[in-house]
Amino acid sequence: MADIRTLRDRVPETEKITINLGYVDLGRIDLLVQEGFYSNRSDFIRTAIRGQLDSHRDVVSKSLERHTMELGLRDYNRAELEALRDKGEVLHVKVVGLARFAPDVTPDLVRATIGSISVLGALQASPDIKAALADRIS
């Protein structure tokens, strides 16, 4: 069995949300799907959301600057956090998108290096890391 190797679990690139729609709106979406404008309901909803986000691009950019937030994917790894700890620095994390902590990051390291954390989107971390950050999440 030397030919067998373990593959890393794939981290999802999307977050599932649930919305409630009225029957008329849902019927109109289904009609557009039936007519071939969209491949399915999710395709319509994603397209509509992207359109709204594009129409507010300037507002989002100005808000990111004002709040000094990072946009997109932000990974935190053990080496980076250890370097900060060794310099005596503390991070105040502000992310719009996805913030991830590597599996080898320890709760003690997080408590020593993360002063506060605000994530608009999703935080991916082990349950131990989330527990260590519980009093610092805003």
UniProtKB/TrEMBL annotation:
Transmembrane segments: none annotated. Coiled coil: none annotated. Gene3D superfamilies: Met repressor-like (1.10.1220.10). InterPro entries: Arc_rbn_hlx_hlx (IPR013321), RHH_8 (IPR041088), Ribbon_hlx_hlx (IPR010985). This is CopG family transcriptional regulator. It comes from Paracoccus aerius.
